[in-house]
Amino acid sequence: MCTSLLTVMLANGSLNPALPSLSTDPGLTTLQQTRVIDLCSLTFAALLFTAATVGDRYGRRVVRSHSRGG
């Protein structure tokens, strides 16, 4: 749980440098920027927890072998 939270926090941290370009290029307001960041983190966390659940249910090796295309 701690590792997944750390991963989500690092992913959010990588979005912070993109905030200035989000305000100038598409012309987003501060509230819209906040919603974009929240949606990105929510989507990433949902996919992370889904992958963890599948890994727990079917086994880590099976999931990793299918994710590599093998």
TrEMBL record:
MF annotations from Gene Ontology: transmembrane transporter activity
Keyword Transport assigned to the entry: answer is no
Keyword Transmembrane included in the entry's annotation: yes
Region forming the signal peptide? none
Localisation per UniProt entry: Cell membrane
Query: In terms of one coarse class, where is the protein primarily found?
Result: membrane
How does the record classify its membrane topology? Multi-pass membrane protein
Please provide, in alphabetical order, the Gene Ontology terms of the cellular component aspect for this entry. plasma membrane
Residue ranges annotated for the Major facilitator superfamily (MFS) profile domain, each copy included: 1-70
SUPFAM superfamilies from the entry? MFS general substrate transporter
Listed A to Z, the keywords are:
Membrane, Transmembrane, Transmembrane helix
This protein is called Major facilitator superfamily (MFS) profile domain-containing protein
